[in-house]
Design goal:
Structural class: alpha/beta
Number of domains: 1
Strand order of the largest sheet: 1-3-5-6-7-8-9-10
CATH class: Alpha Beta
Order of helices and strands: HEEEEHHEHEHEHEHEHEHE
CATH architecture: Alpha-Beta Barrel
Largest sheet: 8 strands, parallel, barrel
């Protein structure tokens, strides 16, 4: 009986150790936003790993389409001229990334009007809006939609965003697509513990706070978002490097979160991305998996940035 007990304990220990070891050795996922009003989306695919020439970033989102409307129950998806151009005459920027294995999402953002993700109360209206989102994603052959619940002037409620998320993810036409969310001080959206169930990923975007634990723990501990779905965000915009990408990356890696989100990829993002790459290597080499981790640099494909495809 004792032999059985000790054997059982050993199996449990080894399972935990091996699972932790594999998770610790897995590369962090890198996600980015691109403000397409002033940047080429295709720039994301120009930044490559030096060891295998694969893209350094795995997921990117078009920033942004908008939610317009004067009636909260009748929201409309709006594309500004730059987004319209990208989705139509410049669509090759999207296929350029997808052919490299990069998933391309589109962010839906409020637009200072009486409409938005958290505005709806009518069930049929929520279902219709969710269907419109799914139709949009499929029409443009995108890999998913990103929720950015800001800049709406409506009276918000707790159930709206979670219900819409449910109707999107349960739609058969959305199978294999990603539903993600920009996270910030919007905890009320998670208060019924429903939204976390339907999100594939969430990236926290309090860019100028270095209290990483305070930024992520509410989602992890109170709102039941799993670690493997949580990212910590940083801003790569010119002159914005606090907190440093190195510190963001080390925290995420050391605490086994999913990855790093970068806002916003431009033609000048190489140094920022290199800091992420070096910090990930340094964090991983402190684990027992150091022999499996290669030090890499982020290189830029020649004649790629801002090129007309």
């Amino acid at each position: 009986m004792k032999i059985f007990f000790y054997s059982f304990c050993l199996i449990i220990f080894l399972s935990y150790f091996l699972d932790s070891n594999v998770h610790a050795s897995a590369p962090l996922i890198k996600m980015s936003y691109v403000e397409v009003n002033s940047n080429n989306l295709s720039n994301v695919g120009c930044y490559l790993r030096s060891d295998n020439l694969k893209p350094f970033i795995q997921i990117t989102s078009i920033f942004a389409a908008n939610i317009n409307g004067n009636n909260p129950e009748k929201p409309e998806i709006y594309f500004n001229p730059q987004v319209t151009k990208l989705l139509n005459s410049d669509y090759q920027q999207i296929t350029f990334l997808q052919k490299k294995g990069i998933k391309v999402l589109i962010t839906l953002l409020g637009n200072h009007q009486n409409a938005g993700w958290s505005c709806m109360t009518n069930t049929e209206s929520k279902k219709k809006f969710a269907q419109n989102i799914v139709n949009m994603v499929n029409k443009y052959n995108l890999d998913g939609v990103d929720i950015d619940d800001e800049y709406s002037t409506c009276v918000t409620n707790e159930s709206s965003i979670a219900d819409i998320a449910q109707y999107i993810k349960e739609n058969p036409s959305f199978k294999g697509k990603l539903l993600t969310k920009a996270l910030f001080s919007d905890y009320f959206a998670f208060s019924n513990l429903k939204l976390a169930k339907y999100l594939d990923y969430g990236w926290e975007m309090s860019y100028f706070s270095d209290n990483f634990e305070q930024r992520l723990n509410p989602y992890l501990l109170q709102y039941k978002v799993k670690k493997e779905k949580l990212f910590l965000g940083g801003s790569a915009s010119a002159g914005e490097s606090y907190p440093s990408p190195s510190n963001i990356t080390k925290y995420v890696s050391n605490n086994n979160f999913a990855g790093v989100m970068i806002y916003n990829i431009t033609t000048n993002s190489q140094n920022y991305l290199n800091q992420i790459a070096q910090a990930e290597y340094e964090a991983k080499t402190k684990t027992k998996t150091k022999n499996k981790i290669k030090r890499i640099n982020v290189i830029v494909t020649q004649n790629c940035l801002n090129i007309s495809l």
